[in-house]
Amino acid sequence: MAISARHLDKAFSGVHAVRDLSFDVRPGIVTGFLGPNGSGKSTTMRLMLHLVRGGGVTTFGGQRIDQLRRPLRTIGAVLDPAAHNPHRSARAHLRIFAAAAGMPASRADEVLDLVGLTHAASRSSGEFSLGMQQRLALAAALVGDPEYLILDEPANGLDPQGIRWLRDFLTARTDEGRTVLLSSHQLAEIAQTADEVIVLGRGEIVTQGLLRDFVDQFSHQQVLVRSPAVDRLAGCLKANDIGPFTATGTDGLLITGDVNTAQIGDLAGHYGITLHELSSHSSSLEEAFLEATAATTDYQGTA
Ligand SMILES: Nc1ncnc2c1ncn2[C@@H]1O[C@H](COP(=O)(O)OP(=O)(O)OP(=O)(O)O)[C@@H](O)[C@H]1O
Q1: Ligand 1: which of 9, 33, 39, 206 to mutate, judged by most atoms within 8 Å of the beta carbon?
Q2: Which residues line ligand 1 (CB under 6 A)?
Q3: CA of 260 to the centre of ligand 1 (A)
Q4: How far apart are CA 288 and CA 270, in angstroms?
Q5: 151 CA from centroid of ligand 1 (Å)
Q6: What number is the average pLDDT over the span 71-85?
Q7: How confident is the model at residue 299 (pLDDT cuts 50, 70, 90)?
């Protein structure tokens, strides 16, 4: 079932971190939660889970978290991979979660197996690498076999195999009809995992909906053309009001705007201009993200 967040709002002293945020997270798909640093993703997730006080209401399949007798059986969350006692073994850590969830102690070994940590079950979690801590945090979230997963940067620190494993793992969960909200800075990861996205900027929703619609909305179609007669081709584009375009390399033009390859091919054919390459290029999620959030980015470095 869906997660429904309504009018979430949180101000810290001097910073309005989340402003009147309302959204739904649909079941059976992964919803990516995106936004620049400081845009309010973690605060939103904490508000949803009643881990910070603030305005608004979140329901999971119609129920607020404080109405659930055993929240761990309904909602699993990964918020801080370092939230474990470093002197405790992974198995002992998870047995505490199992007890809190009303699950048998043997569930600890099941989830260790699920996240690929069986070999480290007896080791102190303080010895774990960041990637291992992420797996342990995910194991803790899974102890109660929850229907809803709220995951704040779970891919952080995972190696490429770990990232692929996480993707397959989440897809398997959503195929079962579960509901996943996933924040990540790894846009390539979101592009391959999420079906829908919610994009935040300065505590407000910039856009939300299908990932492919988001990329389409904020992307520019580009056509790359290479020709030994690139100057003539540039003149023809100008004469026919096609563009804008920029030179790339010694013989190429990158054309943007409302343009497609057929149009450019026809134009070149009409003027008898030889082409060595004609290809189209759609923007990536990264380009769409930068475009969508450009006006809301608080922290910008210099190159
Ligand atoms: N405990 C706090 N006290 C004061 N300000 C806070 C606190 N927690 C968050 N903030 C502020 O709220 C805003 C949103 O922070 P938040 O951590 O939710 O953003 P985020 O999108 O998760 O960022 P990041 O991508 O860097 O993790 C920021 O301006 C941050 O400084």
Answers
A1: 39
A2: 12, 15, 17, 35, 37-43
A3: 42
A4: 34
A5: 16
A6: 86
A7: low
Strands 196-201 and 30-34: parallel
Q: Given 3.30.1330.30, 3.90.1150.10, 3.20.20.105, 3.30.70.100, which CATH number is that of 222-281? A: 3.30.70.100
What is the residue with the minimal CA distance to atom 11 of ligand 1?
Answer: 17
Q: What is the pLDDT of residues 184-224, one digit of tens each?
A: 877 878 888 899 999 999 899 998 999 888 887 777 778 89
Distance 2 CA to ligand 1 centre (A): 26
Q: Which fold has domain 3-217?
A: Rossmann fold (3.40.50)
Domains of the chain: which residue ranges?
3-217, 222-281
Residue 150 contacts residue 77 (beta carbons within 8 Å): yes
Ligand 1 mean position, distance from CA 93 (Å): 28
Residue 124, both tokens: 């102190």
Query: Residue 155 — pLDDT band, cuts 50, 70, 90?
Result: confident
Q: Computed over its alpha carbons, how large is the radius of gyration of the chain? A: 24
Return the closest-CA partner of residue 68 out of 144, 178, 152, 173.
144
